[in-house]
């Protein structure tokens, strides 16, 4: 529920976008006491999410939920149009939530005109020395670690010590030094807390990777004067000729009007100019802040040159790492190139397949979809060839050209659209760069992986460049729009040149610089002090059992559900049992371990009752960590004896109960990032018996629901493990007298419910043994060629 004060309030500053620029300036301003509203197109998202930025997810809503930019980019590159999903985020943290945490300072010649190293724009309007204190502040804020670049003549960075290099990287560093290169530990915004998994390219579930969310938005929200509107898209900017009056936003189906004294645009180098161009009005006939006609122009990327380098044969490989960088190729022969650094991936089959598919999707062959699956063949051959090779990427600086630009999409104004032509001078510099790299790596086994120029769409910049002349720039030296006195920009679009290094540190440093100037402007104005929306807090499980778990078992008043509840309490789990009959629950309580069973009269077919029960459990006991969806009814009616109402009553329990309980349990599991869900299933849908139509349909749908849940959550929350268990026919009222003893089955079920291995996500168990999904002949052949071990079904071995 949105606090109405958020909309009604006149804020000191509204920040549009929460990536590394928006998150950084929001924190800077909030900590100075200004009232700050952050507006983000995508969701806040649970902190526990861990997904990577996938291009193979093409459902718009599924992309939105995961924090991906929801629509494909419409790009016209060298005259060829294509639609593809770019590496852009659209959630709190923006694209930085998925970045590889590289936070390196640029070279002095990236910003200043240096004798012997002329600058393509003559130099930025603010000097390297003006940025220097903000580089230092950013390194402290983002807790950057690494080692000094041996080639740098600049004052030392404010770097924290980096972890020791893995064995293979240490050996590779020694080899590089022997051939005359100057490797150093790459500068990373990572805290390396115990158990850190280095989520390079993934969302970090533990706040140890420092990004726009962890280093910007979350600290800002700890201030009482900051608030966040997520899932909120700014549709248009309104105002008079020289000032913004208000923003029109949409959140869900509601149209909002938002007002502030100052507005900061940080929607990315594609998104920010698109919004300004979309804000045409009588006062701004070419779009907001666009009297120069330069909004969206001078679009730049980086070229990425990927190189596979093999370590020594005796070097032990610990898998993909991101440790080494070099600047030996940064500038040579009066040409501007850039950094050379480890990517953090190995040349594995999966990585190569993903890379080839991305190239295919942007190529002229993309319409021949039948070819796409066959990319696995060259990927397989390449994986066998590359073996233990480490992948490095060389960055080549791009230069600004006005014909490279962001435009409004005529077919879909909300879609990001740009035109770009690769210049002949960039092609020539690429050839020179490849020759230089090959020469300097002589004696080291290496191979270029790219055969054509590869634009890095994550490094777009330059589309709202800052400068001193309103005729040749959109922003002034303080990143305020020349035309609009209360509008600022702090994303990568401010950059006049792309530099030869990852732009993240420079974007964050500039955001701090602009934040200081903006705060000084507002220092004499009355500051607001309304309370902000608070981040959700998790309840502790102080009333959990000895195991620390709180389990909900449905259908706990009899049969298998009762046996499961009793068995779990014997293992130290606090169990809340749902059932419709008090007598059954009382019987279960008498059998369970003392003090660990909590009865709840709940009809799982009543969604509202289920939600009330889970809310009460969280308030009085703690977060549910285990859910066993066991409740079911089996009416034994011929189909012609069913009425539509009686049929749907069965579905309401057998399917609707699973939906209601799972939805309620996931509300807290997604906050903690962990949980266990076991759905008790049946083969009834595969071989229905007479007089079982409603039961068979509902249990089959519940089994499909389990697969759908795995598709929705396994990439984002791999530690929420969802499994189907088919215990077979029980000696219960729903089963038959010669069926399996529920107490025996319950020991298997309890073992499965307490088994939290990520690889169990989507697994199916029958009784005490896993059922492996059949693989096609093609899959079996590929597995044999890739020397993958043959899968062996796992078995449940109950404790004791």
Q: What is the SS-derived class?
A: alpha/beta
N-to-C terminal Cα separation, in Å?
48 Å
Number of helices, counting only DSSP H or I runs of 4 residues or more = 19
Mean pLDDT: 89
Taking strands numbered 1, 2, ... along the chain, how are they ordered across the largest sheet? 22-21-20-23-24-25-26-27
What does this protein look like?
Helix content is 30%, strand content 17%. An 8-stranded mixed beta sheet has the order 22-21-20-23-24-25-26-27, with helices on both faces. Strands 1, 2, 6, 7, 8, 9 and 19 form a 7-stranded mixed beta sheet that branches. Strands 5-11-14-15-10-18 form a 6-stranded antiparallel beta sheet. Helix 5 packs across helix 12 (504-522) and helix 15 packs parallel to helix 16 (644-672). It is globular. The chain has 800 residues and is α/β, with parallel strands linked by helices.
Q: How are the elements arranged and paired?
A:
Elements: H1 4-8, E1 10-16, H2 20-31, E2 36-39, H3 60-66, E3 73-77, E4 80-84, H4 108-111, H5 128-141, H6 167-178, E5 184-185, H7 212-221, E6 226-229, E7 232-240, E8 243-251, E9 254-265, H8 268-278, E10 303-309, E11 324-326, E12 331-332, E13 335-336, E14 340-346, H9 349-361, H10 376-386, E15 390-396, E16 405-408, E17 416-420, H11 424-440, E18 446-448, E19 487-489, H12 504-522, E20 550-554, H13 559-570, E21 574-579, H14 582-591, E22 597-601, H15 607-620, E23 626-629, H16 644-672, E24 675-680, H17 693-713, E25 720-726, H18 742-753, E26 764-766, E27 769-771, H19 777-785
Parallel strand pairs: 1-2, 1-9, 2-6, 3-17, 9-19, 20-21, 20-23, 21-22, 23-24, 24-25, 25-26
Antiparallel strand pairs: 3-4, 5-11, 7-8, 8-9, 10-15, 10-18, 11-14, 12-13, 14-15, 16-17, 26-27
